[in-house]
Amino acid sequence: MIADAASPGPAKAARWPHLTMHWTTAVMVALGAPALVTLLAFTSVRTVVPGLLYVVAIILATVVGGRIGGLVAVVASAFPFFYFFASRYDRNELNAEGATALIVFVVAALFGSEVLGRERAARERAERAMRESASALDAAARLQYVADALSTVHTPQEVLDAVLTEGVRAAEARGGLIATVSDDGEWLEVIASRGYDMKYIEPFRRFPVSGNYPLSEAVRTGEGVFIGSEAERDERYPELIGRSQPGHGLVCVPLVGERGAIGGLVFSFPTDQEFSPQRRALKIALGRQAALALERARFSAAERTLRERLSFLGEATALLTSSLELDRTLQRLTELAVPLLADWCAISMLVEETGEIEQLVVAHQDPERRRWAEEMREHSRTIRIDDEFDLTAQVIRTAEPVFLREVPQELLDEAVRRDPNAARALEEISIRSAITVPLLAGERTFGALTLVAEERELQDSDFELAQELAARAAIAVENARLYREAERRAEAALALAYVGDGVVLLDQDGRVRFWNSAAAAITGIREVDAVGRHPAELVPKWQELTQLAELADAAAPERARSVTVPIETPSGDRWVAVTGVAFDEGVVYALRDVSDEQALERARSDFVATASHELRTPLAAVYGAARTLRRTDIEIPGEQRDRFLEIIVSETERLTAIVSQILLAGQLEEGRVDVTTTETDLAPLAESVLDSTRLRAPEQIELRLEQNGDRAVALADEDKLRQVLVNLLDNAIKYSPDGGEVTVELNGGHGRVRLAVRDRGLGIPPGEEERIFEKFYRLDPALTRGVGGSGLGLFISRELVSRMGGSLTVRSQPGEGAAFVVDLPAA
Fold first, then answer.
1. Is residue 424 within 8 Å of 435, Cβ to Cβ?
2. Which residue has the higher pLDDT, 229 or 608?
3. Phi, psi of 610 (to 5 degrees)
4. Entry pTM
């Protein structure tokens, strides 16, 4: 095979010395052997002996030099034979013995040369057959070795590696190259090479099948192209002059699969070559093996990819149908799409009310890059549906998908020009290929799904899969929308069923079609007993209710005017406010139980009476003390005069406090109280309030301050907090008629500060813990030993604490006292 691969010039040069030596030896034998026999002339031997020896010399010369050598030996033998040995008989005449000897000489030369020629020809045929057999066996072995190597590979890349390693070795080539036909059949794309300078490969990464190139011709014709030298290549393909790597022999064979040419295989050689039929057959066989292996690997990869994509679609379908939480489902869907389909996946939705396009979710395999994209989304310009440039807007507007196999640079430049944030984005990512497909619900387009590849080029199969995925996503989105609509209606029905106001729906015949639980609670009539009947049969004063209520039109339900009337129910009398709205299919009434409002109004009336009483008491004391001091008919001792003055001062302060509470309560309701929070140290504040409280507290009351943990510094309004603490201490002293200990506790930690006022007084009856914070609410004097008040102190305290960002709560056990806790944010 080495000789077969060598060029003919060096082979001829190598054979020339051998031929020279061969003929030199033949001449020497053809002349020397007869000369040696001629030496017998100096002896007395009989003529027959030298004759026989001349025959032997002729045969020997024939063996060495062939027929020519034999004939030369005949001439060299005949002359000395006749001159030295036949002359004994007659030198001038050819006698019978001499003629016989000459004939014998010639026959021996001819016969010997013929026999030897046939034997040599047979031997050469045998040797040639052996060489051809060895060459075929070697070629078969190399093909088998390549076949073995290709049989163990599974992916297209492994096939390429095996062909360029074992195939090049089997072809005895210097380098190899593989190109495949593009999907449209118009181009050849180099996908792998070995042994080539890459600067010559890059210009031919993609070249036309129709071009005048060796590999293009091989792929077009389906036959191998064999070029023995660079000169032959340049003559046949002038387009390659100066553009291809300098070389010698070149072979281009097509890679033919079941459906035609799928590519081409190139072998280059370090020297000029002559390609025998056997060598050509070997290269073509290598091409067939490579084509079959590559096609098999492609089929295997395609099958594997198909299985993966079917699995992906199945998983995506299961994911989309597993939940109706749209945002989370779409986020998981985009995460599922990367990196199987692309490097980036995003879903955008059209906000129909505004015409704006909102990017709902975006996904990337790298969480950091995904967070970066979400941050960029917050600062990107707003995209509208009528944007003529934006691809997403175009897809949603036209309902037609866009597939950019290669994203044009002009498009990216225009995006940068329109949005400076796009320039920042393109510094972080590269966009090579993109797919945007619409999300459709019937004929309505409500969004788009976008896939972006940074390095690889998206294929038609990716485009088809993206459309399948978008169709499933659209169904999921539409199902979620319908579910939300159904849920909204169900929630509306549920709200009507459980709203605090009673809702009564009457049809055009005046029969009840809807009677919610609030209506049942107000009237005491169950829904099952009400539906289908006339309401007058259920509520005795229904006619009075509906006659007084002025019905509003459905176009302006806000104009409905409410009327309030008392009705009798199984649980007692109730005050009910009624409004009605008429529409095409009947009338809907809203019933509101305003019994509590009526009670509040009564409480206000009671408060007015109580306030009048509370105001009258200090006023009477002040008035009496003043009149006494003004009397001139009696002499008032100095001690009594001071006592009367103290009464006037204390009752005036009491009167001022009551008026201040009333005014502050009104301001709190109207939102006219300003609260300014600053860093407030609670310990000095509590000490100050306790000191002033001790001056007016009964002797049996012991006031203490306890501080636990770190220094208690809160964000609070110091004046308002002082007022709250004063209210709580006054309340604790007032409801501790038997005296006892009243403690102010301060605690801080975990970002909060707590101030608690504890007493050991009467406590709060069960169920009243929240009601005591209501405006004007007072505990029953029968349960508090006659202790009363305005019903405003705790209401004002909770409102003030709430405006400082805190809370006021109470814990109590009847007879064991109460603990009011103020919780504020720490400074």
1. no
2. 229
3. -65, -45
4. 0.43
